[in-house]
Amino acid sequence: MEFTYDEKSYIINGKRVFLNSAAIHYFRMPKEEWREVLVKAKLAGMNCIDTYFAWNVHEPNEGDWNFEGDADCGAFLDLCAELGLWVIARPGPFICAEWDFGGFPWWLSLKEGVKFREYNETYLKYVDLYFDRITEIIRQRQLSQGGTVILVQVENEYGYLTDDASASAYMSHLRDGLLSCGIDMPLITCVGGVEGAIEGANFWSGADHHYANLVKKQPDTPKIVTEFWSGWFEHWGAPAATQKTPQLYEKRMFEAIQTGFTGISHYMFFGGTNFAGYGGRTVGSSDIFMVTSYDYDAPLNEYGRTTPKYMAAKRFSLFVEAAGSLLLDSESFDTAGIAAPEDITVRGRRNGEQRILFVGSVKEERETVYLTLENGRTLPVMVNPGEIVPVLDGLQLLDGVRLISNTAIACNEVVNGIHTLIVYAKDGQRSLVELNADEVIQYADDQPILHAQSADGRTITFDFYHFNEPQDVRLIIGGQELRVIVLNTTAMDQTWRIAKGQWFGGCFDVDIEAGGQLVASVNASVSAVEWPEDFRVERDSSETTGQPVGAVKLKAPKLAGWVTSTLDLASVQGVSCEVPQDFSSFSQPYGYIVYSSLIESDSDKQTTLILPKLQDTARVYVNGAEIGLIREVGSSSIEIPLHKGSNNVQILVQNMGRLNFSPYLGEPKGLFDTGYVQGTATDIRSGWSHGEETVHLDRVNTLDGQATLSRTFQVDGHDRAVLVGAVSVPLRINGKEVPLEGYQNWFAHHSVDISAYIQPGDNVIEMPYAKSPVNRLELLTYHSSNAIGAWSMAGLADGVPSEAGVSASSTTESKKGPAWHRCEFAKPELPADVHAKLKLRLTGLSKGSVWLNGIDLGRYWQIGPQEDYKLPLDWLKDVNELVLFDEEGRSPAKAKLLFDEQSNRRWTTIEG
Hints:
- Residues 580-679 form the Beta-galactosidase 1-like first all-beta domain.
- With 912 residues, the chain is mostly beta strands.
- It has 11 helices and 58 strands.
- It folds into 5 domains: 3-322, Glycosidases (TIM Barrel); 324-543, Beta-galactosidase, domain 2 (beta-galactosidase, domain 2, 3-layer Sandwich); 569-679 and 788-796, Jelly Rolls; 682-782, Jelly Rolls (Sandwich); 808-899, Galactose-binding domain-like (Jelly Rolls).
- The strands form 14 sheets. Strands 4-5-6-7-8-9-10-11 form an 8-stranded parallel beta barrel, surrounded by 4 helices. An 8-stranded antiparallel sheet has the order 12-13-14-17-18-21-24-23.
- Helix 4 (121-139) packs across helix 5 (164-180) and helix 7 (246-259) runs parallel beside helix 8.
- It is globular.
C-alpha cells in the first residue's frame, strides 16, 4: 500500500485522504473498553487514531518493562488495524497530555546530571533505551510492514519552549533515533519542527494564523491540525471546562477546512481517566493539579457515551467525506465578487469549476441572508449566530451532474447500487438543492415537494423543508438513478455510515427483528462488536414486535458495613533524616508521606512556619491537632500554635502530580527542605508604583506601554527571602537582575529564592507588568538560624499503612484525623442487553484516594469540579473491596455507587 503526500493532502493508494483522526489514549481506560471506543470513533467518521505512548506506564520502575494487559499498546495498534483505522503514533518521549511528568518515569529524575528535554547525555541515554523498546512495537505495525501506522511524531510541542534553531541538536537526535530504530513512515512534529519531519499545528481557534505559519515554513507539505482541542482539561477547585460548546466546536472545524487544512486530529475524541497517580500538573498557578477524570468535554465522555459534540463531529466527518473530491484538491479564491450583507463573511475554495463557499454570521439571531454570485445568481442561506454554513456551487456528483446546495451534505456515493445524496439542515429549516445535468432529469415522484424544472429539463431546483420524517426523492439522469434523501439533524444523528456504500438509518433499509435486533449489511470488523444503545434505530413499538424499546430500572449496589482504620499520628515511626526528602528520593513514586519533627518552644505562642520547598498540598498537624491545609505551593507558610516545651509537628503530603509541561520538569515532589519558624509572610500584590500611580496587581487589566513596576520591602532582620507567585521577567532586586532561565510570563507562577540579593533596610523589586488578576504574589522571609532540626518520614503508598512504622486502629466509628474506610459490595447483576457504566459519588468526604480490589483509581477532592469517579465494570469481581483514604477522616456514610445516566438503555446487536 502506497503512502505519499503533496502540499495539499496525504495520499493513500493514489487517493487523497482527509485525515480525520481521533485522539484516544489506550492507557486511560481498561483494555476491555478499547473496542467500544474505537468502533464509536469509526462510526463518527474517524479514519485514523492518534495515540501517545506513556513511557512511565511501560517502565514504571527502571528496567521493569510492562507491555501486558491495559499496557499492551501493541494489541491496541492491532485492534486499530483490525477496524481499518490508520494510526498516528506519538512515542514522545515527552507527551505532556496532562499526564504525570509528561510521560517520563519518576525514577528518571534521580539520575545524576539529568536535564529533561535537552541535549543532555544522561537524559538521552535513557531516551535511547526507551526508543529501543517502544519502536520495536511501532515498527512492525507500520503501513510499510502491513500495519496501519502511517505517521510517527518526534517529541511534542517543543516549540513552546524554544525556536527550531535552538532545538536542532536535541530534536535531530530524537529524529535520528527513530530512523535508526526502523521507523520508515513519514515523521511529523507539532508546534516546532526539525528537518526531515512534517510540522503540524495545535490549536482551537485562529486557523488562518496557524495555516499561514505552516505554509511559510513548509510550503510543500500537507497542513494538518495535529491537536484540535475539542474541549479542555479540568483541575481541582476550578470551574467545569465546558466553555467549548458543540456549536462552537462545529464552527471551528469548518474554519479549519475553509483555511485549507486537510487533516484534523480531535484532541481529545475520548479522554478517559487519570487512574492512580497519573494526573499531572501544569503552569498558570501554583496548584493547577489535574482531576482524576480526563473527560475533556470530548465527543465521547469519560464513560464512552456519545455527546452532542460527537454528533457534531460525525456530521462534519460525513460532510468532508461527501465533499472530499472538491476539498482535498482545492485552492482558496477571492470572494470579493460575491455580494453579501453586512455581518456576513464569505470564504471560498475552488477545484476547477467546483466551488465551496463558507458563509459565516456574526449577527445576534438566525437569519436567512442572500448571496449574489459573480454570475448574478442569488442564493438564500439560513445561518445562525456564530455559525458557518457550507454552500456548494457546482459540486460534481456524477459524470455530467452538478450540485448547488445551500446546506450541508452527508452522503455522495453509491449505496445499494444507487448513487445517493443526503442533504440535511437543522430541524424546521428550508434548503435549496439544485441539480444541473448534461442530460434531461426525470422526476416523477408524487411526493408534495416544492420544485421547479427548467424548460429543457436539465435543471431541477428543490425547496426542501426538513421534517422529522425523512424524505426520499428518486431521479433518473441519462439512465443513471440518483437518490436524494432529505433529513433534519435529528434524523441525521440517527443515520450511520458503516463503510463506503454501507449505511443504515434515515431512509436506508433496516429490519427490526424480534428481540430488538438490528440487521444490516456491515463489514466483519464492525459486526464483531456489540452495537451500543447510543446507535439503536428508534422505532415505535407498533412497528416492531409490540414491545416498547423501554428503559430498564437498574439499582447500583449499596455501600454499607464500612470498617474504619484511623491513622494514629502519635504512633508514626518513620525513617529518620536530617532534611526531608522528596518522594522520588524516598523511593516512593506516588501516594502520601508523613513528615514529622519536634520543635522546642520557650513559651506558648503563635509562629509562622515557612516551608520554602513544597510542591504539593500539605495538611499540617501540631501535637495531633490539624492546623490547616496548605493549597498554594512552591513555597508556603502557615500560622501554627506552639506550647512551651516539645511540640510534635507533622505534615501529611499527597503527591498531587508532577508537572506535565514546563521547562522545570522533574520538580521534587512533597517537602524537600526543612521548615523554618518565626518567619513572615507578606502579600505584596498591592503598593506597586507605576510612575506616580500606585496600583494593586489584582485590580488592573492594562497599563500604558511596556510598564515596569516597582515596590519596596523590608526583611526585618531575616537573612533568607523567597518571592513566590506570579513574578514576571526581567525581575530585578535592588537593581540586579535575578536569572530565571526558561521562565515565561504566561506561566504565572515561580518560586524564586532572592536571599542573595537582599540587604538590610529598604529593598526594591522591579518587574514588568504582565497580567491581572494576579492570584498570588508573596514575600516569605525567615532566618536560617530558625531551621527545624531532625525529621522522620513514613510512607502511605498503597491504601494501607506501609512498613515504615505507621500504625492504625480498627473501629466502626469515624474519628477525627486521616482514616481508611473499607467495605465490600457484590458485583451487580445486569441484563445482557444493558450496557451499564458504574461510578462512585463521594458526598461528605474530603480529600484522598480510592482503591478498588487493590487497583488505585486515583485521587479525589470534594472541591469540584469532579463529583463522580469511574469504577470500570471490567475491574469488578464477584465480591469487591472498596477502600477510601480520607485526609480528614470524614464519614463515608453518604458515599454511593451510581450507574451513569445512559446506562438504562438497551443494546442492539449488529449482525451481518
